[in-house]
UniProtKB/TrEMBL annotation:
<feature type="transmembrane region" description="Helical">
    <location>
        <begin position="195"/>
        <end position="213"/>
    </location>
</feature>
<protein>
    <recommendedName>
        <fullName>Xylose transport system permease protein XylH</fullName>
    </recommendedName>
</protein>
<feature type="transmembrane region" description="Helical">
    <location>
        <begin position="309"/>
        <end position="326"/>
    </location>
</feature>
<feature type="transmembrane region" description="Helical">
    <location>
        <begin position="233"/>
        <end position="254"/>
    </location>
</feature>
<feature type="transmembrane region" description="Helical">
    <location>
        <begin position="114"/>
        <end position="133"/>
    </location>
</feature>
<feature type="transmembrane region" description="Helical">
    <location>
        <begin position="346"/>
        <end position="372"/>
    </location>
</feature>
<keyword id="KW-0812">Transmembrane</keyword>
<dbReference type="InterPro" id="IPR001851">
    <property type="entry name" value="ABC_transp_permease"/>
</dbReference>
<dbReference type="Pfam" id="PF02653">
    <property type="entry name" value="BPD_transp_2"/>
</dbReference>
<feature type="transmembrane region" description="Helical">
    <location>
        <begin position="261"/>
        <end position="278"/>
    </location>
</feature>
<keyword id="KW-0472">Membrane</keyword>
<feature type="transmembrane region" description="Helical">
    <location>
        <begin position="139"/>
        <end position="159"/>
    </location>
</feature>
<keyword id="KW-1003">Cell membrane</keyword>
<feature type="region of interest" description="Disordered">
    <location>
        <begin position="1"/>
        <end position="21"/>
    </location>
</feature>
<keyword id="KW-1133">Transmembrane helix</keyword>
<feature type="transmembrane region" description="Helical">
    <location>
        <begin position="72"/>
        <end position="102"/>
    </location>
</feature>
<keyword id="KW-0813">Transport</keyword>
Length: 417
């Protein structure tokens, strides 16, 4: 009897340190991912807060549809902006470029009588040329991006007013307007006979399956190469959270009158594509290297001038796409379009975890930051908060996000000492 008790005590003693070390290891892992975890927790807290303050109006299906459509052009800009910021630059011209491209597309359709699809393609080409123009001055002449894009903000705002003659163009073709405000296969399943939009349900289930397969395959590949350091419990928690979010969004959109916005499909494709570019390609690694340490990247053989040039060309195309989405949603192109778009896109990137000094940032983080800004705007509007207080609160949120980034860096540097 006594020997049995002694053996049990020894077993407990042997398990105690192991359990403690496991908990401590999990704690250290979560602290190392504080930047990534914090942004999603912030979005969850803000959604929960406004859901309560608005009496449940925030997560009404039609309102969720509106949040996505109303913020789609900012999310498009945030994709390109976070890449620019990761490389250590900034782009202040994207709002003016979006307005200029929207105006040019209107001119092409109204005055040049181009088909809507040809106007869309030509407008994207104009965006690429604008990006190449600014990228040339940044990459090959060596003028700081802040100065080049500040000049671009003035130049393309002026050109927008010139080509429009300070007048608004309206009355675009229905196909053109679908990009910014249309739904995928509307009327395929009439709401009178179906509770849910089954097109949306199918898309949501496909997206869920793709997420699960990609995450499991990625973990298996990392384990095979002995690179996996993420605890299994945290991996499963993260995966389940992603699945729940996609299914919840699917249900809300399927319950809305609009179904799946076309621009959401475009956004989803771009997020997947650009995430793959940044995480799995040589170009993506060069972007991070250029922003992390310019001299080290150059000594390693990275063609930083080419990287900078291509980043601004890409930003021009995405700004053009955002301008087309905005113009199509409003069914008008005006000289004042795109105002403050650049500030919202920059705020989305920084709130999403991008570092002020470059080298850090993700596409998913920027999209999450953009959604935080969108939920703040929508929630405060539902509560009847004035635009003055909205600007004040958004400014504080941006300041806190950057302060959180500085705190993380200091904590990491202190840990190394």
């Amino acid at each position: 009897m006594a020997s049995t008790l002694v053996d049990e005590d020894r077993a407990l003693d042997s398990r105690g340190p192991q359990k403690t070390s496991t908990v401590a290891g999990a704690g250290r892992f979560l602290m190392s991912r504080l930047r990534q975890i914090g942004i999603f927790l912030a979005l969850l807290v803000i959604v929960t807060l406004f859901q309560g303050l608005t009496g449940g109006a925030l997560l009404q299906p039609d309102n969720v549809y509106n949040i996505i459509v109303q913020n789609s052009y900012i999310l498009l800009l945030a994709i390109g902006m976070v890449m620019i910021i990761v490389a250590g630059h900034i782009d202040l011209s994207v709002g003016s470029v979006a307005a200029f491209v929207g105006a040019m597309s209107g001119i092409m359709i109204r005055d040049w009588s181009l088909p809507w699809w040809a106007a869309l393609v030509a407008a994207l080409a104009v965006g690429a040329l604008v990006g190449a123009w600014q990228g040339f001055w940044v990459a090959y002449i060596g003028i700081p991006a802040f100065i080049v894009t500040l000049a671009g903000m003035l130049v393309f705002r002026g050109l927008t007013q010139i080509v429009l003659e300070n007048q608004r163009i309206t009355g675009f073709p229905t196909e053109y307007r679908q990009l910014g405000g249309g739904s995928l296969f509307p009327g395929l399943f009439p709401p009178a006979t179906n509770i849910l939009d089954w097109t949306t349900v199918g898309i949501g289930l496909i997206a869920t399956a793709m997420l699960v397969v990609s995450q499991l395959r990625g973990r298996a590949n990392r384990a095979k190469l002995h690179l996996e350091d993420e605890p299994r419990a945290w991996f499963l928690t993260r995966l389940v959270f992603g699945v729940v979010v996609i299914l919840a969004l699917t249900f809300l959109l399927a319950s809305s009158r609009g179904g799946t916005p076309i621009v959401l499909v475009v956004l989803g494709v771009l997020v997947v594509a650009y995430s793959a570019v940044m995480n799995r390609t040589v170009f993506g690694r060069h972007v991070y290297a250029r922003g992390g340490n310019l001299q080290a990247a150059q000594l390693s053989g990275v063609n930083t001038k080419r990287v900078d040039f291509l980043l601004f060309v890409n930003m021009g195309v995405l700004a053009a796409l955002a301008g087309l989405v905005f113009t199509g949603r409003l069914n008008s192109a005006g000289p004042g379009a795109g105002s403050l778009f650049e500030l919202d896109a920059i705020a989305a990137a920084f709130i999403g975890g991008a570092a002020v000094t470059g080298g850090v940032g993700t596409i998913i983080g920027a999209i999450t930051g953009g959604l935080i800004m969108g939920v703040l705007n929508n929630g405060m509007s539902l509560m009847g908060v004035g635009i003055d207080y909205q600007q004040f609160i958004k400014g504080l949120v941006l300041l806190l996000a950057v302060g959180f980034d500085v705190f993380n860096k200091r904590r990491a540097s202190n840990a190394l000492k």
